[in-house]
Specification:
The protein has three domains: 153 residues, Cytidine Deaminase, domain 2 (3-Layer(aba) Sandwich); 50 residues; 37 residues. The chain is 46% helix and 21% strand. It is built from seven helices and ten strands. The chain has an eight-stranded mixed β-sheet with strand order 9-8-7-6-2-3-1-10. A two-stranded antiparallel ribbon has the order 4-5. Strand 2 and strand 3 form a beta hairpin. One of its GO terms (cellular component) is eukaryotic 43S preinitiation complex. Belongs to the eIF-3 subunit F family. It is found in: Cytoplasm.
Length: 281
Amino acid sequence: SEHPNSLTMSVYGPVVKIHPVVLASIGDSYERRNEGASRVIGTLLGTIDKHSVEVTNCFSVPHNESEDEVAVDMEFAKNMYDLHKRVSPSEVIVGWYATGFEITEHSVLIHEYYSREATNPIHLTMDTALQSGKMNIRAYVSAQMGVPGKTVGVMFTPLSVKYKYYDTERIGVDLLQRTRDAPNTTNGLTSDLCQVGGAAGRVQDMLATVLTYIEDVLSGKQTADNSVGRYLMDLVNKVPKITAEDFETMLNSNINDLLMVTYLSNLTQAQIALNEKIVVL
């Protein structure tokens, strides 16, 4: 699923979908940067389709830069990518990232290297220094500009950025959010039943908000919004049409199946443990 409150910068070009593990990895690389380094850079890995670029992984690349020059360990970047391909062959180089708020002159040189490694690579910036008061995340794609036959420059065009996560990543994000207001506290993972209960509670709260909005619109307290109405219509159409009796029968059947599988797995573990003791004797 995708985060609904995504940062939209431009509708030009592909949509960039970023997973939480990428943002966490970039932040960790920045915290572990070499002494005196102002920023860190790295390679972005993921998948590409016709309308979007999905960034699912990344790794940092050692580099040194001064006012006059920039040096990037290209051999390290190549070796790391070869290792990643062994683990996740579907992930390809989709671009590169840099911490900071602005695109520098050195960014153009680094982008030229990644243009040889990927077709139309994206450039991701992450404001780890919180220069704007928050950790802004922006994505760009480059395009040449200038008069034909003359000096050609490079223009970085902003792209739309969205945040996407797998179910397992959502659990980690929720755990981090619980420590947002009290960063010095320690929180552990909750049980599956507690997670289901929490999710059900959040759904109930959202349904209550929707019902309140609908009642206000029907009573004339609030003006109807057509975009909200379309979202509600899509939501209603996605709900399967099933009677309460059929739903209860299906739920009880699935619970019985789950309990049977759990019982068989526990029985198997007991048999294995008993067999091991017999063999030892």
